[in-house]
Amino acid sequence: MAETQKTSADIGIVGLGVMGANLGLNIAENGFTVVAYDRDSSKGSHLTNMAQEQLSDPSKINAYNDITQFIIALKKPRTILMLVPAGAPVDAVIHDFAPHLEAGDIMIDGGNSFFKDTNRRVEELAKKNIHFMGMGVSGGESGARHGPSLMPGGDRTAWEHAKPILEAAAAKADGEPCVGWLGRGAAGHYVKMVHNGIEYGLMELITESYDIMHRGLGLNLEELHKVYKEWTKGPMGGFLMEITADVLVQKDPLGDGYILPKILDTAHQKGTGLWTSEESLTLQAPTPVIDAAVTQRVLSSTKDQRLQASQKLAGPKSSISFNGDKTAFIAELGNALYGAMMLTYAQGIHLLQVANKAYDYGLVLETVAAVWREGCIIRSQLLKDLRNVYRNSPDLINPILDTNYSAKIVNTQENIRKVITTATPWGLPIPGFTSALSYYDTYRSAQLPANLLQAQRDYFGAHTFERVDQEGTFHIQWSTTE
Ligand code: 6PG
């Protein structure tokens, strides 16, 4: 703890968990003075020790567990960045700190808050003339420490004030900071929610590709490691591909061999993927790969039921075998994964474009793609393509409609079909790949069977239908057949 009270800190961090502590060190390392608060004094002491070990000037960061001392230490207007769990803890921090603030002070919520909560907080604090900004922070512990992707939105005054600090702390892509004001209201948290939805979709696709090669082709972990390592160098290379390669050959610190086979196959989730799916249905901008990913996490967690069902529900008659050219098939699988990943990003971007209109965020999709290029979990080579798409066509509703972007997906569609027709007879669940392909086939269909659906609706509910040959809405008396 600081022995003498200083009153010159550029920014205050509230919440000294992994993200808060590391972001604090990152900002201090970039030359800003940081004051940090956690009601648990051991967290403040831990941060002070980390600063001693890691910073050339540890005095750049001081920790308190007393709100008044923390507030006094801040330069006016005060900038407070919260990194506390989403939900009630954010409201609790606002409740405890806002009475100490003055008009013109700034609060930034750097957690994964639900965007509707952020809207409410922006409005409530605006009444007190406190500028509130919801900011997505991506990149986990290492990103926070060495350069996260930052997704701020909300009060523009707050952004202008905090900009130098956030730009210094953010990851850099081609020398540009991966941060930019994204839009009004809850724009920052909305973009982070969709980022996480895409994250869920990509993770699901990667795990399906692993299953196809592991259970399907019989590749061992070292062989799988080599495949993913190779894929990191290609057009779908990025953070999730890199960590997958690492995970495959991580040794078990508690025993012999690799850790992966010893990890229980029940996935958890904190909610951001589910929110994305809910939003996509509410706004009618479908995200089926993300929905499949959310569903698979839920199904994976019903381990007891799966164990029972595994004794009752038969799979395909013949056991898994592959007689073809494995190397050639793995290359096809790589292309299929690339195409399905492109479709997943497209679904997320489509949702953002629809939300942009629905909520009047003022999002600039080129900025979103630029901010996602480095530092975040979904960073990949694909973001360069997406940035180009939106640089040229800012209003494009879905990148799948861009000639260059779609050409790359078209090149992979036969590969996706091959992967599905190979893995489905094996009885492997691959809802990410199948929903990606169904989305593709639906999107490209000038004619769908929805005519029959409309007829059914009119039959039982007189819901009316439109005709292809006449204007207007129609209802007919449907006849029952013998
Ligand atoms: C990030 C991550 C981060 C966190 C997710 C995990 O961008 O750094 O998305 O925010 O890891 O919240 O989400 P689940 O617990 O739902 O998988």
TrEMBL record:
Query: What are the recorded Gene Ontology BP terms?
Result: D-gluconate metabolic process; pentose-phosphate shunt
Name the catalysed reactions: 6-phospho-D-gluconate + NADP(+) = D-ribulose 5-phosphate + CO2 + NADPH
Q: Which GO terms describe its molecular function?
A: NADP binding; phosphogluconate dehydrogenase (decarboxylating) activity
Q: Name the Pfam families on file.
A: 6PGD, NAD_binding_2
The record's annotation in SMART domains points to:
6PGD (SM01350)
Q: In which pathway does it act?
A: Carbohydrate degradation; pentose phosphate pathway; D-ribulose 5-phosphate from D-glucose 6-phosphate (oxidative stage): step 3/3
Keywords, in A-Z order: Gluconate utilization, NADP, Oxidoreductase, Pentose shunt
Please, which domain of life does this record's source organism belong to?
Bacteria
Q: Which residues bind substrate?
A: 112, 138-140, 195-196, 200, 270, 297, 457, 463
**6-phosphogluconate dehydrogenase C-terminal domain boundaries:** 188-479
Q: Where is the active site?
A: 192, 199
Query: EC number(s) on record?
Result: 1.1.1.44
Q: Which family does it belong to?
A: Belongs to the 6-phosphogluconate dehydrogenase family.
The role this protein plays is:
Catalyzes the oxidative decarboxylation of 6-phosphogluconate to ribulose 5-phosphate and CO(2), with concomitant reduction of NADP to NADPH.
Q: Which PANTHER family does this UniProt record tie to the protein?
A: 6-PHOSPHOGLUCONATE DEHYDROGENASE
Assembly and binders: Homodimer.
> This protein is called what?
6-phosphogluconate dehydrogenase, decarboxylating
Origin species: Candidatus Nitrosacidococcus tergens
Q: Show the taxonomic lineage.
A: Bacteria, Pseudomonadati, Pseudomonadota, Gammaproteobacteria, Chromatiales
Gene it is expressed from: gnd
